[in-house]
């Protein structure tokens, strides 16, 4: 959910305190292997507070998949403007979660980071309109107040693609109160979060998916530094393998993991997490990427993303080589695209 409130910040602090004190429901930690080797400690930094968009990573923790690989994984919650890319690039944490467009922007700024897995194939960013408005497409947006982060790459792309006749763009207020109070508004959100909040408060929103405009960065991708790949490839392999397993488990049966996420982020009720899991499932499993290829990526998608970022002046032409922003090295062969040249990424 991309709504920030004082309550949200307080509950995030409470969640961290609960993690520190223990709730009695924490996943069992890994034990030494048969040779007596201690588990490898790994830190995974999130780009936001724990939510359904991170469900597969938490499922790998809850179900013991990281432990099976001999990894002792600490998942570190994020928040507004979490510097995940910088932390991964500096080596402050071994792994991070981000979106593909931010990865490319980070690389343009000098961060030597690589994406090793992309669980969410269809970006969940949406623009909500009132269901009763009759608006069913972006082309019908006119004479509305659009509450959104106008400087975000996706928002700039939207403004370049659409006439938005008679529309006024104002900052996103951070809650759905103004949206509910004014039928002549539209508001940004994530399809598995804000529409649910609107419904819970008595409204009905229709999400228009930004991906349908063609701006579709991979979401909640697993990133690592090139140095980490060079020095600890086996650890990266273990992390990717367990994370893919976790995402498959979450998409099939998210209930136990959702209860754990709720403990880490009490503001996210089990009900909204269940809604989120239902919404995220078709974003992960698509016609192009069936379950057995979960996590895969293509060079074409990365190149398109780079071209769009150049178009909206988020990066300059020639600043990044999109094929160096990802690798399929650590995904099982069945997870790789069947197309030849389009599937190339960073070489092993």
Automatic annotation (TrEMBL):
Domain SsuA/THI5-like: 52-256
InterPro entries on file: NMT1/THI5 (IPR027939), SsuA/THI5 (IPR015168)
GO biological process: thiamine biosynthetic process
SUPFAM superfamilies named in the record: Periplasmic binding protein-like II (SSF53850)
Membrane-traversing stretches: none
Domain of life: Bacteria
UniProt xrefs under PANTHER family: 4-AMINO-5-HYDROXYMETHYL-2-METHYLPYRIMIDINE PHOSPHATE SYNTHASE THI11-RELATED, THIAMINE BIOSYNTHESIS PROTEIN HI_0357-RELATED
Protein name: NMT1/THI5 like protein
Species, as recorded: Maioricimonas rarisocia
